[in-house]
Structure formats: C-alpha cells, structure tokens
C-alpha cells in the first residue's frame, strides 16, 4: 500500500515536519503512484501539485476555516485534500479515475471520518450526490469549492457549479492561466466574451496568483493560476436583485451577442436565434426559488430583436464586447417580457 511503501504508517501522514501536506514533493508523489502501480494519465489532465508553499497560498486565498465544508474536484492522490482537511470541518471530493479511490483510502486514512468521495465525472454530479455524501459525514452541504481542476473541463466546471449549486459561496481553483484571464477579463478586452459575462452573473473575482509549470509533477506545458471567485447576485438598473430567470436570459443574450464577435449585436443575435428551434432556459437557484424551465422559439425571438433592443435601451449597432453586466441583464429582462416568458419575473 502507498503509506507503507513510502516508509510511513497511515496515521503518520497527519504530520510531516511542518509540511502542510506530506505528499507535496515529487519524490513522495512518485512513491505513492509507484506503490499502487499507476502513472499519470495525460487524457485526464493529471498534473500533481508538489509545492507546499502553493498549497499554503491556496488555503489562505480560500480562507479555509474550521467551519467550512469543502467540495473538491479532482483530488488526485490527496495532496491538496490533506491540506484542506487540516483546516476545514470536512471535504467531499469528486474523482472519475477508477484507480485513485484506493490511493485515497491510504493517503487520507487519518482523516477518513471527515472525508467522503463521489466516484463520478464532475460534470455529471448532482445536488443529490453531494447531499448524500455529506449526510454520511453528518454535515450540511459544502459552502466552498477548492480544487486543482482538470484543465480540460475547468472553465465548464466552475460556471456549471455556480449555476447548479447555490449553496457554494465561493470557488478557489487552480486553472490554466488563459482560463483565469477569461474569468477576470474586463469589458472591451480580447478575453472578454460570453463566458466572462455568464460567470460574472454569478460570481466576482476576489484574488488570484500565478503558478508556474515547475510546481507540478509532471510539469504541464502551460502556465497556471489560482483564482478565487465569490458568489454574487447582480442588480438591475433600479438596484433590485436580478431574479434567476433574468440571469439565465442574460446569459442566453451573451451567447447570442458573441456568436459572431466581430458583428454588431443586431447581426450576431439575428444569426444566433434564427438558426435555432426550441431554446430551453433553465434558471438556477434553490429548488424553492428557481423558476420552471422556459422554452423559447429561436425564429420568433429573431423577429422580435428590434423591439427587444429598444425595450432594453441598447443600440443594436454596438458589439457584444462593449456591453457590461447591467446591459446584458437589461437584454435578458426585455427578452423575457417580449416573449411572454417572464410572468413578471423580470420585475419581481
């Protein structure tokens, strides 16, 4: 087993000469992998963090405390997980690699009563999956996402989890530098796009730091960054909080506005909607708050675009990259009102 092969017993993993994680060195990581007869899998984007100082900075940026329940995606062999368990009340992790649960049984043994594992693809995880895992620990739903994310799905996971899991107050994640740039992009910059707008409807950047390739085993071919995002509820022009239906509609309008980035809003949105049939809007939120899914007819929306832009007070000759969050919310509210899909949601 990994613990024995690395020269220490399972319970000795709880402390390692002041290191936040005893696995945060290339040699320790290699020993664990060799003991279990496995290697890194390029297809799963496995690059294991091997710098204890980076772990300390992640814990500090996420402000992990004894009352926090952490959701982690891609725990790997448990390097970051150990650091989290030393500071938080509990950790529930999501891992799709079938070879790693056996490793985690060993590396996380001292904290086994405060750790739960969901063996599933991160993009398929449901609220019920997380609730069941936390129930086993006797804990409420997690309040923070902290993870060294698989880079191929990092951007999707972050937005998806903010949309699907309103119980998450923040996300502190390791991602590819270019993804962090998109998350934090300002209006009018080259990285500002539909993804930036949609993520910004749910969260705002609260800090970031760079992480070079040498901090991983094996080193990736890209630069990385850790970024913290805090949940937010955006406001309408009159200062009232935007409701879930309007937020979802604003995200749809962002997709339409950036469908043809170099075209005007009028042309990009017309092309986007005219070529689509039924478009399903699924507002996110707690079960008691989220509105029922709404289906919009693309060609019908395309025909209503002139009235939509007028109602929102947006010049259709502008381009998507010039619009801020408030203007996309105005477009979303106008979309719901003109299509009759709001039932008052835009102004509640």
* Helix/sheet category: alpha/beta
Low-confidence stretches: 1-9, 344-348
Give the C-alpha Rg.
22 Å
- Oligomer status: single chain
User: From N to C, what is the helix and strand string?
Assistant: HHEHEHEHEHEHEHHEEEHHEEHHH
Overall number of structural domains? 2
Predict the CATH topology of the largest domain. Answer: Rossmann fold
Which word captures the global form? elongated
Instruction: Give the mean pLDDT.
Output: 91
Strand content: 15-25%
Strand arrangement in the largest pleated sheet:
4-3-2-5-6-9-7
Describe the model.
By secondary structure, the chain is an alpha/beta fold. It has two domains: 2-231, Rossmann fold (3-Layer(aba) Sandwich), CATH 3.40.50; 244-339, Helicase, Ruva Protein, domain 3 (Orthogonal Bundle). Helices cover 37% and strands 16% of the residues. The chain has 14 helices and eleven strands. The strands form three sheets. The chain has a seven-stranded mixed β-sheet, sandwiched between helices. The protein has a two-stranded antiparallel sheet with strand order 1-8. A two-stranded antiparallel ribbon has the order 10-11. Strand 3, helix 5 and strand 4 (115-119) form a beta-alpha-beta unit. Helix 9 packs antiparallel against helix 10 and helix 10 packs across helix 14. It starts with a helix and ends in a 9-residue tail after the last helix.
């Amino acid at each position: 087993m990994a613990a024995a092969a690395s020269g220490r017993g399972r319970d000795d993993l709880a402390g390692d000469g002041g290191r936040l994680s005893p696995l945060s060195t290339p040699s320790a990581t290699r020993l664990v992998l060799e003991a279990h007869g496995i290697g890194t899998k390029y297809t799963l984007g496995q690059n294991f963090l091997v710098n204890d100082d980076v772990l300390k900075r992640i814990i500090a940026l996420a402000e992990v405390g004894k009352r926090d329940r952490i959701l982690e995606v891609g725990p790997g062999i448990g390097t970051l997980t150990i650091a989290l368990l030393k500071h938080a009340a509990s950790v529930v992790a999501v891992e799709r690699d079938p070879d790693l649960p056996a490793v985690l049984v060993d590396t996380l043994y001292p904290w086994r009563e405060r750790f739960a594992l969901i063996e599933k693809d991160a993009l398929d995880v449901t609220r019920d999956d997380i609730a069941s895992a936390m129930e086993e620990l006797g804990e409420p739903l997690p309040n923070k996402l902290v993870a060294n994310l698989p880079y191929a799905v990092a951007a999707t996971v972050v937005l998806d989890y903010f949309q699907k899991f309103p119980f998450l107050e923040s996300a502190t994640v390791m991602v590819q530098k270019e993804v962090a740039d998109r998350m934090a992009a300002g209006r009018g910059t080259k990285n500002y796009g539909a993804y930036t707008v949609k993520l910004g409807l749910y969260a705002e950047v609260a800090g970031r730091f760079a992480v070079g390739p040498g901090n991983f085993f094996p080193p990736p071919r890209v630069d990385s960054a850790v970024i913290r995002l805090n949940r937010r509820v955006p406001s309408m022009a009159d200062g009232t909080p935007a409701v879930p239906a309007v937020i979802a509609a604003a995200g749809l309008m962002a997709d339409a506005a950036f469908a043809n980035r170099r075209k005007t809003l009028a042309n990009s949105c017309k092309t986007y909607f005219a070529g689509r049939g039924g478009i399903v809007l699924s507002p996110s939120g707690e079960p008691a708050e989220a509105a029922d899914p709404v289906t919009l007819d693309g060609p019908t929306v395309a025909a209503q675009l002139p009235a939509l832009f007028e109602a929102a007070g947006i010049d259709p000759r502008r381009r998507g990259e010039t619009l801020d969050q408030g203007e996309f919310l105005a477009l979303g509210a106008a979309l719901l009102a003109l299509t009759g899909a709001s039932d008052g949601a835009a102004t509640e």
